[in-house]
Amino acid sequence: MKSATKLLNFLLRRKDTLSPMLILTHNYPDPDALASAFALKYLLGNFYNIESLIAYGGVIGRMENKTMVDILNIPVNKLTQLDFRNYSNIALVDTQPLFENNSFPSDKKATIVIDQHRSVKKPKADLNIIDTRCGATCVVVAEALLALNIEIPKNVATAIAYGIISETLNLYRGTTKRVISAYLGILPMCDISALAEIQNPPKSGYFFKTLGICLQNAAVCGNVIGSNLGLVENPDLVSLTADFLLTYEGTEWALCTGRYNDTLHLSLRTKAGDANAGEILRKVVGDSTRAGGHGEIAGGSIEIGQDASETKWKESEKKVFQGLIDRLKIKANQCSYPFKLMKK
């Protein structure tokens, strides 16, 4: 509860100077980021009388995430430059100022940073909570709410519960007693039917098309499986397919890449419990600000350029996969394509 105590003490001490506050997630907010922002907004408004606005800079693409926002009425807003002029206090959740996955201006200082990922450099903020052992960023805010011993609204509790199980792969990945305790503390206040609906939303035809491309391009080299998705409708599809590929028997690592705008998005997953996927992907990318993660999950991006040739895109995709193979010291002369359909 150390992180939660730090947060509560800071808000109590500074409550008269923090309103209004902009709560900023990374550009393509996942359930953990959305839950963290939603829970923090509730905490700020209902206990410290601090007005706040949740904003993100990119898109909410994954169907589960859209369903989560719609069903739970999470008040998220597309970020505008006007927001930075209107809000002198900014809280970053599930990201940090120096990370390339958010729209935080380089010339500003954050008021609050709450994140579970290892810092490249200590963030400049009035309150830094970099808790690499919390399992999910929303656990920190959940612990703060639970410490107040109050009834948490169903939609906020449900958001936190989904943030936790999504980030930990249904409490399988990197789970500690602390994560389980927060989840069990929140669960009785959840809307279970809403939670089930969020986890099983209807999927578009584009999703199944992307899945087909993923399988068609999937290559297995040693205990690594990887796939290039080409152009994607949204970057969330990259992490979704990486999770899917990791279930292939005999593999320990899964890597997916996808092209979105001028950027190659990367998602790395592993079953190796003692691994540091974030550190490995940072070394593969070669830029600590453009990749990160924790334990068995990592994500990153490489800016290719709006006018980049097809050759440059393919070279970058190949370089990332080969970089992972080399980093893991896998001795395999040839990759196989187990799902590739042969032309008649």
Give the SSE map.
Blueprint: H1 2-14, E1 21-24, H2 31-48, E2 52-56, H3 63-72, E3 76-78, H4 81-86, E4 89-93, E5 110-115, E6 125-130, H5 137-147, H6 154-167, H7 177-186, H8 192-199, H9 205-217, E7 219-221, E8 224-231, H10 236-245, E9 253-260, E10 263-270, H11 277-285, E11 291-294, E12 297-303, H12 310-327
Parallel strand pairs: 1-2, 1-4, 2-3, 4-5, 5-6, 8-9
Antiparallel strand pairs: 7-8, 9-10, 10-12, 11-12
Helix pairs in contact: 1-5, 2-5, 2-6, 3-8, 5-6, 5-7, 6-8, 11-12
- For the termini, the CA-CA separation is 61 Å
The proportion of residues in beta strands is 15-25%
CATH hierarchy: architecture of the largest domain: Alpha-Beta Complex
CATH class of the largest domain: Alpha Beta
Task: Give the rounded overall mean pLDDT.
Answer: 92
Residue share in helix: 40-55%
Shape: globular
Q: What class would the helix/strand composition place it in?
A: alpha/beta
CATH homology group of the largest domain: inorganic pyrophosphatase (n-terminal core)
Number of domains: 2
Can you list the strand order of the major beta sheet? 3-2-1-4-5-6
Stated plainly, the CATH topology of the largest domain is called inorganic pyrophosphatase (n-terminal core)
Question: Please, what is the oligomeric state?
Answer: single chain
Radius of gyration: 20 Å
Tally of helical runs: 12
What is the H/E string? HEHEHEHEEEHHHHHEEHEEHEEH
